[in-house]
Task: structure prediction
Amino acid sequence: MSILFRQLTICGVGLIGGSLALTARKHRLVERIVGLGRTQSNLDIAMARGLIDFATRDAEEAAQGADLLMLATPVMTFPATLSAMVPYLSPNAVVTDVGSVKSWVVQQLEPLLKPAMSFVGVHPVAGKEVTGAAAAEEGLFVNRRVIVTPSALSSAEALEKIETLWRATGAQVEQMPPASHDAILARASHLPQIVSSALACALADEMVEGRWAAGFGAGGLRDTTRIAASSPEMWRDICLSNSEALTSALRLYREWFARFEDAVAASDERALNELFARGRRMRERTE
Result:
């Protein structure tokens, strides 16, 4: 493959940004990779693993000469980070992100760009509960969905380059409008996180006759609460920036949770069978 960008600057060299850097380096899709971070310890790991060529905690220094800027920090930090970096980017730079929310990001970021710049929103649906440069892995995106959300400032050239970059990871790249993305992911990603975290909150201090109830959980409890270990900062920002779609998803969940509650309270054998069977059918479709 030919070089797509001279310099990729990654703001937040963690699981997603670091994993993409491994692919970009392997296929020589960028000449230079710069990492911008808040903590020196994470940047040191990124350097030691060869994820980046240069590490800095200074936004101006990181932006110098970048023709691709990737925002991979919690979404609510995007506007301030981009504002600080825009004056120092290449005049025709492409700005992209890997956030789990798109409409809010487009609304906030596109007005900050200079006339010749492009913005291409991206969401790799490949997250894990682990974070940081140490978690980056080259095969993270293989056969996983990567959603590209073109918007008003997504030039055809920028869109093609970004999709080429992500296809190199082995991902299944597809396009959809930002609003559609947010409605779908509110149900398929954001709602499961809240359900997992709510269960963990409910059991955090639950004692029965002097015994911590969660301590007796087996695989089911561990599997269901696994993603409750995810970054609180990241999920706080997702909830704040996708509140309308997520509220709708929570209402949908509340409706079905209430059906379970009513069936259990009434010892309704038929209703319970139907509910568990419906859940099982959904799970089987995802296998």
